[in-house]
Q: What sequence folds into this?
């Protein structure tokens, strides 16, 4: 009687290890206003818009052509300079999508297009309507087993609570984010149980906090550059582990670390222009795994 | 020294059980104990070289009654506390001559005694009765139970025993010089041990009262049975598991709901009655430890019950899940209970009868049906397994939530789970403490503390405090933590705290099997898969239907009680009221008893010269402490911890900068007028107890060593004295105290209370001073307690009382040693002094100091939701020559028990005559540890050329009902004895106050 039980995985419900499974992606074109008006932590080099566009097209092409995802491309909105960073406006886990309330007021309207797109995918849509709540998707790290929500300038406790209410199956732990824009400015998932993390003290400290908060034990992949720790892990049927990471030209040392991942299909992505406005790899897409068309 | 402890603890326990006819019981008890002592003595003679006491007992020829049959004897012997067993070792070491002398006399006396008390014998009651009954029941029952029981009880005992034995040896060595004293002592001890054996058989004669009992099972049905009134939780639990055909039962437990609607786990190792008090005997059978991986359970039936529990958890909202998960789990439930989807049979409505979620929508039901269709061909067991595989991943699976506040007063939730302690704020996890990181868990009053290992880059351990709604909640949380830690993290249950003197605290430990053990046991299960019927979860969900969204399972329990009790109004669940007399087993009586052997407490007649003197101290466990992982903390660490705790506590109580009053301090609130008047003592008690209601405090007693001898050279001693205060007390008050044993209970109470008064006055000023001095002490609350020690009452055989008070703020250990030395030299004759360590007296003294009264207490008390029922008991075992007498009194007002047990060596020293004596010097030494405050007061007096050095130790332990009094007491005595090997214990006074409701939680 012992044996018959565990045909785990179940039906995808309370699931755990669907991390990286992905069938659809939502992206958005970048408006020209990004060059002048996109929010940025500190002024730096001017964005080469043409180059930025090229980089973005490449990014989308990888998702679409190379990985075979169904990609929904939303048009740019010139009134929304940051609209290309779709990650911040929606958190999708399994069949449920939380439309966020971005911390930056200028970005609140970005949610509209996203909401429509997700509705078209028949996801359960939850909207964050509480005016006291703010949450940027960039502060949400989903490990496949639980959520970590960075409390940052963009994300507050209330926003995290709503996220916890939305994804009740999972533990939602909050971690403070001090020096960076978002939690995922220095970390991301690089594999089912693997957290890529930057080398700065703040990043390492945050990782420790996350490790302490978790019932699970994660492996960590420390990369020299915080920004390079933001990568995209996918688990594509037929392709296995796929990792989109920053190109060696940008972060050579970090790229070397990624290249040690033998089991992953590694896809370097250049992101020089977007990074000038604090945009990293994960920022530009919302990944969705549609298991059924119910 | 343990000798003294023995009878006390025994009595104490029983006293808690007393009903209306308590007085009779007490008397009987005393009789019994005497008998037992007697027989034990005989035993000791015969069995000096016999290693196994049980065997000796069984074969004891001296017993004129029917011999108990071997199995019975064994069973009973199990219940003999380890410290009693220890005495065996004493008997091995000690000379026999003393023991030989006694038996004859005692036997005679015993016979007389017995003839006087036929009724009593006919009505045995008490703990042993329970024990006997239990063992009888167990024998009746299947062997498993027997095993189980022995597992749980045996686990804890061996260690203690070892401990005691080694201790005994040590002691024996020390005692060589003092053979006389020891001999006497030993005899006593042996007798004490016998008590238990003897008592059990008699109990069996009595009818056994049973109480109807109902258990709500997980499938919504109800299980009823009659339980013996004193049955332990294990009995009921085993019955239920048997009914359910459940073998992997360690994951489960029984819940009962207390007056404040809080659910409490029934402790298997304790009497049900004591846990639930006056509550109806209604329980719910629940999963207690959620298996992290249900697929590792051996039997489907176990998984089935786990599923039922989880369905309840989910439907009630206690286990939150997303929409999709609700639907998925619901679909597995349908598959398990209805089988494959059948479009004809399963119309649109079939699903509405199930409740899958707290707020179930049509949309969800549709989704459930859709998913149900996909599970075709899954067997019920497979469907259950799928259900569990998904449910176990839910983040709140197996998390037991407790409301609390953090140090800043912010509402949080503490979640106890397999891996550790989780801290939530508004559904967000804000912190987590894995068991591995937690060094210590403790609670104090309504505060709950965890001490955690230093983080990687940190150097210091930190203690984190949380504020629970009340003391009971804190204790409940603490217990759950202890249990979870043990179950999930340890390979085998931790032994109850070793008898370390400085780590007194709650002895509560998880006594069941750990997960590792239960898994091992499960692997041995070898039976065909039991057939069981999956009753539809509809029933469960229906019972929940009426409840609002988000109902907790408490509401379920409420439903249950309403349904069962309400309609059947005539069913009385109140334990005692319903009790029926049943004679379950007559065999037990023969177990051991030889009625002819009537032991006497006061075998001391011949031993006049022994200055056995136990002087009272109070052990005050104010702080329950669990050292989960570093059991070997040094005292320094303890103190450090304590410091941090008090720091935290201060944080918690910003509104009340003063530390909370301890038990003693609270008493100060009581108007003095009440205290002074004996006639008003009842009122006084009531008031006091009300104040204490919220805080479960137990005082355990006292130890003391007094060495007294004739000081030949001390003629001029008077000059060196440092007598601060010397007063004579009317002997009558003292005599009344000592005679209280024979007086009615109310009288004895009067005396206790009344006697304190003078001391109070005398000590008042000094107390204040000392308190000020102690202002900086880390634990200010204890000041009062310390002060108390500075006051001593000396009762001379001639009924002259010397009352002297000396406060030495800076007592040095060296001084202490010196004093002892002196005492040694001077030992010429063992005087008989009656030192009355009247706890209550001293408590009264505290009353004089208002500065430490913490206002905080009062509101706390007011908040107490307990019904105003008071149970006050007072047990005084006094001078042996007067025979033991126990008075009991019940005052139905506040649920508190007060017990004072005085045990002292019998005789007064005639040498001192009526002189008050002259106080030569007095000093007080105070030391603190986490949970105890020990004050040593040394006085030297000269009376009629006899110098006497008396050391009075007071140990105050504050804590809850979990405190192992026996152990604490034994430890304290042992400790005292070790410190002053040349002195003897002459008196032990145990004063214990227990909040009844508190014990109910155990």
A:
């Amino acid at each position: 009687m012992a044996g018959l039980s565990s045909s785990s995985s179940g039906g995808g419900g309370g699931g755990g290890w669907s991390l990286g499974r992905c069938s659809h992606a939502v992206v958005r074109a970048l408006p020209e206003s990004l060059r002048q008006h996109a929010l940025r932590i500190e002024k730096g080099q001017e964005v080469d818009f043409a180059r930025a566009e090229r980089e973005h097209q490449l990014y989308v092409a990888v998702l679409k052509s190379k990985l075979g995802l169904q990609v929904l491309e939303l048009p740019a909105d010139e009134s929304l300079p940051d609209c290309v960073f779709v990650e911040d406006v929606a958190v999708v886990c399994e069949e449920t999508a939380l439309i966020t309330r971005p911390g930056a007021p200028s970005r609140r309207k970005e949610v509209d297009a996203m909401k429509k797109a997700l509705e078209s995918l028949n996801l359960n849509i939850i909207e964050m309507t509480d005016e006291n709540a703010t949450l940027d998707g960039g502060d949400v790290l989903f490990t496949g087993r639980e959520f970590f929500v960075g409390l940052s300038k963009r994300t507050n406790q209330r926003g995290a609570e709503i996220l916890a209410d939305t994804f009740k199956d999972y533990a939602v732990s909050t971690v403070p984010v001090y020096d960076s824009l978002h939690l995922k400015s220095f970390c991301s998932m690089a594999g089912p149980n693997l957290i890529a993390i930057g080398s700065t003290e703040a990043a390492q400290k945050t990782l420790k906090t996350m490790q302490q908060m978790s019932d699970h034990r994660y492996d960590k992949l420390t990369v020299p550059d915080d920004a390079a720790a933001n990568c995209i892990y996918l688990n594509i049927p037929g392709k296995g582990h796929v990792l989109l990471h920053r190109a060696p030209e940008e972060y050579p040392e970090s790229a070397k670390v990624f290249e040690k991942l033998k089991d992953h299909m590694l896809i370097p992505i250049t992101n020089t222009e977007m990074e000038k406005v604090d945009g990293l790899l994960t920022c530009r897409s919302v990944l969705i795994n549609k298991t059924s068309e119910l | 020294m343990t000798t003294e402890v023995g009878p006390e603890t025994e009595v104490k326990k029983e006293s808690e059980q007393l009903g209306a006819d308590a007085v009779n019981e007490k008397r009987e008890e005393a009789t019994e104990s005497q008998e037992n002592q007697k027989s034990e003595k005989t035993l000791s003679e015969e069995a000096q070289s016999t290693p196994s006491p049980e065997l000796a007992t069984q074969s004891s020829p001296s017993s004129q009654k029917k011999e108990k049959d071997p199995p019975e004897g064994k069973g009973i012997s199990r219940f003999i506390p380890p410290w009693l067993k220890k005495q065996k070792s004493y008997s091995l070491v000690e000379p026999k001559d003393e023991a030989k002398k006694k038996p004859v006399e005692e036997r005679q006396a015993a016979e007389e005694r017995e003839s006087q008390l036929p009724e009593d014998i006919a009505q045995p009651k008490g703990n042993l009765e329970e024990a006997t009954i239990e063992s009888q029941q167990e024998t009746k029952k299947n062997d498993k139970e027997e095993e189980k029981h022995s597992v749980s009880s045996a686990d804890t005992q061996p260690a203690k025993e070892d401990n005691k034995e080694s201790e005994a040896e040590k002691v024996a060595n020390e005692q060589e010089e003092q053979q006389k004293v020891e001999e006497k002592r030993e005899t006593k001890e042996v007798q004490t041990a016998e008590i238990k054996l003897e008592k059990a058989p008699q109990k069996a004669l009595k009818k056994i009262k049973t109480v109807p009992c109902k258990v709500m099972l997980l499938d919504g049905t109800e299980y009823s049975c009659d339980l013996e009134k004193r049955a332990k939780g294990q009995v009921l639990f085993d019955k239920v598991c048997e009914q359910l055909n459940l073998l992997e039962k360690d994951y489960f437990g029984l819940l009962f709901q207390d007056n404040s609607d809080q659910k409490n786990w029934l402790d298997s190792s304790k009497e049900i009655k004591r846990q639930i008090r006056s509550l109806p005997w209604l329980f719910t059978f629940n999963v207690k430890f959620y298996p992290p991986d249900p697929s590792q359970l051996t039997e489907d039936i176990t998984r089935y019950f786990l599923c039922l529990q989880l369905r309840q958890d989910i439907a009630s909202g206690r286990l939150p899940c997303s929409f999709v998960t609700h639907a998925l789990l619901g679909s597995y439930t349908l598959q398990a209970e209805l089988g494959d989807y059948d479009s004809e049979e399963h119309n649109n409505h079939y699903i509405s009868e199930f409740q899958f979620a707290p707020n179930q929508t049509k949309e969800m039901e549709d989704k459930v049906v859709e998913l149900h269709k996909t599970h075709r061909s899954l067997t019920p067991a497979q469907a259950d397994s799928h259900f569990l595989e998904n449910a176990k991943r839910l983040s709140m699976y197996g998390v037991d939530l407790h409301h609390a506040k953090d140090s800043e007063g912010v509402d949080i939730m503490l979640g106890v789970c397999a891996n550790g302690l989780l801290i939530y704020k508004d559904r967000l996890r804000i912190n987590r403490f894995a068991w591995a990181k937690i060094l210590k868990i403790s609670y104090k009053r309504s505060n709950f503390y965890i001490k955690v290992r230093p983080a990687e880059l940190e150097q210091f351990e930190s203690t984190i405090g949380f504020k629970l709604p009340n003391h009971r909640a804190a204790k409940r949380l603490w217990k759950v933590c202890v249990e979870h830690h043990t179950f999930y993290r340890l390979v085998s249950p931790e032994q109850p705290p070793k008898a370390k003197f400085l780590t007194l605290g709650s002895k509560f430990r998880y006594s069941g099997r750990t997960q590792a053990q239960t898994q091992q046991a499960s692997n041995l299960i070898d039976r065909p898969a039991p057939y069981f019927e999956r009753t539809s979860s509809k029933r469960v969900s229906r019972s929940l239907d009426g409840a609002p969204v988000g109902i907790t399972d408490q509401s379920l329990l409420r439903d249950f009680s309403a349904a069962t009790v309400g309609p059947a109004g005539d069913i009385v669940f109140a334990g005692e009221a319903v009790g029926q007399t049943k004679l379950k087993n007559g065999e037990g009586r023969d177990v051991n008893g030889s009625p002819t052997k009537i032991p006497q407490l006061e075998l001391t007649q011949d031993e006049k010269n022994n200055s056995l003197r136990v002087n009272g101290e109070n052990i005050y466990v104010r702080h329950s402490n669990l050292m989960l992982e570093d059991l070997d903390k040094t005292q320094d660490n303890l103190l450090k911890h304590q410091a941090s705790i008090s720091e935290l506590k201060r944080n918690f109580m910003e509104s009340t900068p003063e530390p909370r009053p301890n038990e003693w301090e609270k008493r100060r609130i009581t108007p003095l007028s009440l205290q002074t008047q004996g006639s008003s003592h009842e009122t006084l008690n009531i008031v006091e107890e009300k104040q204490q209601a919220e805080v479960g405090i137990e005082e355990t007693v006292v130890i003391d060593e007094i060495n007294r001898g004739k000081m030949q050279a001390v003629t001029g001693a008077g000059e060196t004295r440092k007598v601060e205060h010397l007063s004579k007390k009317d002997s009558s008050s003292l005599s009344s105290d000592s005679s209280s044993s024979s007086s009615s209970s109310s009288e004895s109470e009067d005396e206790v209370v009344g006697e304190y008064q003078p001391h109070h006055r005398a000590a008042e000023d000094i107390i204040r001073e000392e308190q000020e001095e102690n202002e900086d002490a880390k634990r200010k609350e204890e000041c009062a307690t310390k002060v108390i020690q500075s006051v001593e009452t000396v009762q001379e055989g001639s009924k002259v009382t010397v009352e002297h008070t000396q406060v030495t703020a800076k007592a040095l250990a060296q001084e202490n040693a010196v004093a002892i030395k002196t005492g040694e030299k001077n030992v010429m004759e063992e005087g008989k002094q009656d030192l009355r360590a009247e706890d209550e007296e001293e408590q009264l003294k505290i009353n004089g100091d208002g500065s430490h009264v913490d206002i905080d207490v009062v509101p706390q008390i007011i908040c107490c939701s307990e019904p105003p029922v008071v149970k006050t008991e007072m047990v005084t075992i006094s001078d042996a020559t007067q025979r033991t007498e126990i008075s009991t009194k019940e005052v139905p007002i506040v649920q508190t028990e007060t017990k004072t047990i005085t045990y002292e060596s019998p005789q007064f020293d005639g040498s001192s005559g009526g002189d008050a004596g002259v106080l030569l010097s007095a000093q007080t030494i105070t030391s603190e540890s986490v949970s105890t405050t020990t004050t040593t007061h040394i006085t030297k007096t000269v009376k009629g050329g006899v110098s006497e050095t008396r050391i009075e130790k007071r140990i105050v332990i504050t804590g809850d009902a979990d405190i192992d009094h026996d152990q604490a007491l034994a430890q304290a005595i042992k400790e005292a004895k070790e410190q002053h090997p040349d002195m003897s214990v002459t008196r032990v006074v145990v004063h214990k106050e227990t909040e009844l409701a508190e014990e109910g939680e155990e």
Notes: The helical segments of chain A are 33-37, 49-66, 110-120, 157-166, 201-213, 252-259, 272-275. Chain A touches chain B through 42 residues (CB under 8 Å).
